[in-house]
Amino acid sequence: xxxxxxxxxxxxxxxxxxxxxxxxxxxxxxxxxxxxxxxxxxxxxxxxxxxxxxxxxxxxxxxxxxxxxxxxxxxxxxxxxxxxxxxxxxxxxxxxxxxxxxxxxxxxxxxxxxxxxxx
Length: 119
Prior knowledge:
Blueprint: E1 2-7, E2 9-12, E3 17-24, E4 32-38, E5 45-50, E6 56-58, E7 66-71, E8 76-81, E9 90-97, E10 108-109, E11 113-118
Parallel strand pairs: 2-11
Antiparallel strand pairs: 1-3, 3-8, 4-5, 4-9, 5-6, 7-8, 9-10, 9-11
């Protein structure tokens, strides 16, 4: 399974961003999928996780601002994050877990995309 993210970049506080991730090599249908983020030198955070039954969890700091979705027919997952804050700046990674659990621990990772939120 290979994952590749797209989206991100430089956005202003209060704005929104949309990230996409396409999977290849295997179908995501049986996986839990989601998004992690990490700031260099800090612990990574699981931003969102969705099992294949639709059960979804969000990091407390993004609840109410984040929406994760997946399209198994296209083998893609998405993250939309609005009301962006400076602390949302991080490298965002698309992740898939064959155990179909949230939080994810036995994971496949994409290379990540950088998100920078500025004033």
